[in-house]
Design brief:
The chain contains 14 helices and 9 strands. Helices cover about 55% and strands about 10% of the residues. By secondary structure, it is an alpha/beta fold. The termini are far apart. The strands form 3 sheets. The protein has a 5-stranded mixed β-sheet. A two-stranded antiparallel ribbon has the order 1-2. A two-stranded antiparallel sheet has the order 8-9. Helix 7 packs across helix 8 (about 180-190) and helix 11 crosses helix 12.
Length: about 350
């Protein structure tokens, strides 16, 4: 099976030289054969077998291919099997180490999660030919490695960790170690072939870090404001001081975000377009620019699913279940929610 290329590769492994091919062709002088399909597949190498043919049935009139066509197919099969196949690589990332698993060769490697380890992985993958690497996000510990792979022009896909774990459970892998995770990442790459995504440039990563830091500061200030309402008088001055510092930090983050957006003509044009919508201000616009760079490059249904605001079906037979949203980028959804509330109130 496997189509013409797979058929040629399978036959090429049986003969390793032109002389052997020609000798095999000379053995097939009988133009008519009376054998089962299984015997035909073993002996009449050039014949075409349907994948739906029952092996137990007999074909009494099957014309063997000509010597020229059989010899040509076998020689082409030899060259086809010599072409490099794609290597599927899974890399499990932790704070200290990187565990690497390669399929179908079965190669495994563990290196430190530093520049030397990244260089070792790049060197290994460059020697494998066509490669597809899959990594799951680990809170930022994977960023430097992903950038190193992209700079080396090695295709890499960062896949949601929940997908990888569900995939491992579907294959009966209930145990979880770094080595097993790397193997499951490689298996996931081989089975699903995820599409490599472009890594944001340095300026986009700076904007993302500023937007993320601003959100963290806002969350901390919200917690301090909630504590202040019920706090005893003895600790209220301390809480008020912290709130003041956090407010100043948020203002500095806002200035840095504005300065960075204004320095980029493309971002400035997109920001003007986004802020023209009622309910969308600088915070929402900056969040979309930093956390949703795919906006404008994907279809509206695709980008809605990417954010996590597209309702998914829940049907079975005659039942029509309630649609609900699932997954996506929670940070983008939170700012979009506030924008929707403001837009609904004022428009």
């Amino acid at each position: 099976g496997g189509g013409e290329n797979g058929y040629a590769s399978a036959t090429a492994r049986r003969w390793h030289s032109d002389a052997a091919v020609k000798a095999r062709v000379r053995q097939l002088d009988t133009p008519w054969v009376t054998e089962t399909v299984g015997e035909l597949e073993r002996r009449t190498v050039g014949s075409r077998m349907s994948p739906y043919t029952c092996p137990s049935k007999t074909r009494n009139t099957r014309l063997a291919p000509s010597r020229e066509s059989l010899e040509r197919e076998l020689l082409e099969g030899k060259s086809a099997c010599m072409e490099p196949t794609t290597a599927f690589v899974g890399i499990d990332v932790s704070k200290k180490n990187l565990d690497v698993a390669v399929r179908p060769s079965g190669t495994e490697l563990q290196v430190a999660n530093d520049s030397e380890g990244h260089l070792a992985i790049v060197t290994l993958l460059r020697g494998l030919g066509p490669v597809l690497a899959v990594i799951e996000p680990t809170g930022g510990y994977e960023t430097a490695l992903v950038c190193a792979l992209v700079e080396a022009e090695i295709p890499v896909a960062v896949v949601n960790a929940r997908q990888i774990r569900d995939f491992a459970k579907s294959r009966g892998k209930l145990a979880k170690t770094d080595r097993i995770d790397a193997q499951m990442l490689a298996c996931f790459a081989e089975a699903n072939r995820p599409e490599p995504r472009a890594v944001p440039d340095e300026q986009t990563r700076q904007l993302e870090s500023l937007v993320t830091r601003r959100r963290q500061l806002v969350d901390m200030r919200s917690m301090e404001l909630a504590r202040k309402q019920l706090a005893p008088k003895a600790v209220q001055p301390s809480i008020a001081m912290v709130i003041k510092v956090l407010t100043k930090q948020i203002e500095q983050a806002d200035k840095g975000i504005t300065k960075l957006i204004d320095s980029n003509t493309t971002w400035r044009a997109k920001d003007d377009l986004l802020e023209s919508v009622k309910g969308v201000g600088r915070v929402v616009s900056a969040s979309l620019l930093a956390l949703l760079p795919e906006l404008g490059a994907l279809k509206r249904t695709e980008v809605a699913a990417l954010v996590g605001v597209a309702p998914f079906n829940n049907d079975s037979g005659a039942r029509r279940g309630r649609r609900s949203i699932w997954g996506g980028r929670a940070a983008v959804r939170s700012v979009l929610y506030m924008a929707a509330v403001a837009g609904r109130t004022h428009n």
